[in-house]
Amino acid sequence: MTWTISGNYLAGCSCAMVCGCAVDANPRDPHGREECLGCNVFHVAEGRLDDVDLSGVDFALYNHFPSHLTAGDWKIGVVVDEKASDAQADALERILSGREGGAFGELSQFYGEYLGLERAPVSLTDGEKARVSVEGKSELTFEPLRGPDGGPTTMKNAMFGFAPEFTLGRTTGRSSAFGLSFEPSYGEQGDFTFSSEAPEGAPIGR
């Protein structure tokens, strides 16, 4: 089966600035704990798994990384927006769990525990201070870091980037889902394209 999803995302996690997960470094939160707990919310502008149209669906991917990413033993949980159909939710679960191969199929070798799929209202709002909401679970606000010229600070060509280039920033708010609770600190946002035809050896978001 073939699939592709593309759109924009906003991610927040417990790591101190800057999260090392993208470059397979050991994570570290502001309290010195070497783990990464995160909430990553995606808006699918265009997408499809065979004959299931995924355009317009929002979903959240929750993570617990107990060490650097290639050490494995990840915990992963998914929340799909309640407005999505059951067929859309099932298609996304098959993609994100790695069962349909491609980008997430490669990443699934590092999964230690898949925590399953839940349904709740999920939204992502762009703007001066971008926000994500997963009702009853997560509320995050993102503010980009800026360089000397006032433009956003970005990272390019990261080994585990959700996108070829993404904006770095800070997040505030709260998050608690699948038994994974954390105080957000680091954040990032960008545009993503994931597919079943991901080039071998490419970062996840290529």
Overview of the structural elements:
- The radius of gyration is 16 Å and the shape is globular.
- The model has no long low-confidence stretch (mean pLDDT 94).
- It has one domain (3-195).
- Strands 1, 2, 3, 4, 5, 6, 7, 8, 9, 10, 11, 12 and 13 form a 13-stranded mixed β-sheet that branches.
- The protein is 8% helix and 48% strand.
- It is mainly beta and 206 residues long.
- The protein is built from 2 helices and 13 strands.
- A hairpin with a 2-residue loop joins strand 11 and strand 12.
- The longest helix has 11 residues, at 86-96.
Give a short account of the largest sheet: 13 strands, mixed
Alpha-beta classification = mainly beta
Helix content range: under 10%
The percent range for strand residues is over 45%
Number of domains: 1
The rough form would be described as globular
* H/E topology pattern: EEEEEHHEEEEEEEE
Contiguous runs where pLDDT drops below 50 for at least 5 residues: none
Question: What Rg, in angstroms, do the CA atoms define?
Answer: 16 Å
CA-CA gap between termini: 19 Å
Got a strand count? 13
Average of the residue pLDDT scores: 94
